[in-house]
Structure formats: structure tokens, C-alpha cells
């Protein structure tokens, strides 16, 4: 069966993602081997009341050499940053382009001193530019890294979903704060047969440094954490991206990790995932980054997971 990507299930955009009431984005990422029909699937929602869904179209176009462009994006917000245009841009509808490169996001915020609202691309501009320029998920991850390095990044910490017809990646990103160019980031390819979810908390903890097929990261992702005092190699603990750049606190556990737990408990009930981590029980390990669903997921099953409201639980 021909592979296909699930168009993001819900595109409802937040006007104030940093406010606790608006932290309602949830993405589910499903690899080909975990889906019933061999499709890669990505869902995206932002349950921020009052936001309007809209069908946003950027037609394919050819451009003159040397042209500069102020990025256009579905959120209709612009940083004022101008970037060098490429010779040809692809057609984009909301968060998918004509080659079925599909993107999603959830905002996790992270360390406040790393936020830089004054300089560089915001996340909506970054995703729009990426969809206009790249065909595959791997190209998109590396392309976003290049764009942030060249033009800066002016938003809070984000987790991006990046998918094409063959594979799906998750990418954790955060800026370096005022006066510093670029961002630190790490990205993982979801193993075939596995699925994952993210919901306004950084998900990637420890990661291998020698597996370019499945893991990509900024060259200074560890060194910058050491420089900022977020990580001490002498302590003998392995480096964790989320521990360094998005340390957990009660709200993020209850509201954000809780949603991932609820997706996992329904996708793989045989695993009997404990709620203790998101309920803040000291010493409880985080949920695994990837899981294998008990049954291969259909489109309808993923839609049902996205409709979860903790039914059947005390919460």
C-alpha cells in the first residue's frame, strides 16, 4: 500500500502559548511499522480557547536571485526578520507541503533566560520556511538547524514533529538567550514499529552521540549547558537535554506529562503505565520516549487518542 501522511488532525492555534491556560498542544507521532496501513501519522492540536482554525495556502513559486523575504506563516505574526530566498519554494497548506513533508509543534518554554523575543525567527516562521524549502524529514531537521544558526531563533523552547512518507522525527529546540545566535537542539527518528507523543514538555533526555542515522543534535548542545551551569560532567551523570533545558516542575508534570501518560495508557494498555511520574511521586522514572502500541494504529484509533480527556481515571 502506498505510504501516506496523515494531515494534522487539528490545527487550532494559540495566541498566548506561554500562559499556563494555553499550554494545551498535543502531538502523536506514529511510525510506518506502528500503523495499520503502513502510513506515517502525525497529529497536532492546540486547545487554547478562542483560537481560530484556518486553511492557510502558500502557492509554489520561482524567485529571483538575491531576493530577501519576510517569512509568511499561518499564525499571521512576524518577527521582522528577513531571509535569503531560495530559487524555488514548494506549495504549503497549513503545516504540510506538496511533497507530504508535515510538521507539528508543542511549546514547552524551558529556561526563561534562554528566551529571546527580540532577534531571529519565531517558530511559526521557521516551520513555514522549512515547508517551502525541503522535501524530507531529515532535510527539514537539518534545514531548521541551519536557519536558526544563520538568522537566530526568537521563541521559547519547542518540540517539533517532523514527518514525511517514510519516517517521523521529534526535535527539541531552545534558543540561547539575548545576544547569542542560534539555538541548541536534539532530534530523534522514531524507530519503526514505535510511536511517541509530546505535550508542552521537552521529551528527549539522554541520547547517543554516535548514531547519525537516528539521532541528530547541535554541536554545542552539551558544551552550552556546561557553560550556563545546567550540567556538570564531573557529577558523573549522563547528559539529559530535558533535564538541562526544561527541568520538570509540578505544573509541567501534571498538565503536560499527564497527557503523554494518557496517550500511552490507551495505546498500550498491556504495559500498565504508572501515573506516578506525572503525579510527582519522588524517584519515579519518566515514561519511555517510544513505545510499541498493543495493536497497530488506524487513523480512527489516532483520532480517538487525540480526543482523550482522562476518561476512566481519577483525573
Describe this structure in words.
This protein has 315 residues and is an alpha+beta fold. It has helices at 123-133, 137-151, 221-227, 241-245, 250-267, 299-306; strands spanning 5-6, 25-30, 40-42, 45-46, 57-58, 61-62, 68-69, 83-84, 88-89, 92-93, 96-97, 102-109, 157-163, 168-175, 183-189, 195-198, 215-217. The protein has 6 helices and 17 strands. Strand 14 (168-175) and strand 15 form a beta hairpin. It is globular and about 55 Å long. Mean pLDDT is 91; it is low at 5-22.
What's the mean pLDDT score? 91
Euclidean distance between termini CA atoms: 40 Å
Low-confidence stretches: 5-22
Q: Number of helical runs?
A: 6
Write the layout of secondary structure elements.
Layout (H helix, E strand, L loop, with lengths): L4 E2 L18 E6 L9 E3 L2 E2 L10 E2 L2 E2 L5 E2 L13 E2 L3 E2 L2 E2 L2 E2 L4 E8 L13 H11 L3 H15 L5 E7 L4 E8 L7 E7 L5 E4 L16 E3 L3 H7 L13 H5 L4 H18 L31 H8 L9
Parallel strand pairs: 1-3
Antiparallel strand pairs: 2-3, 2-4, 2-16, 5-10, 6-9, 7-8, 10-11, 12-13, 13-14, 14-15, 15-17
Offer a few descriptive terms.
alpha+beta; five-stranded mixed β-sheet; five-stranded antiparallel β-sheet
Quick gist of this model?
The chain is of the alpha+beta class. The protein contains 6 helices and 17 strands.
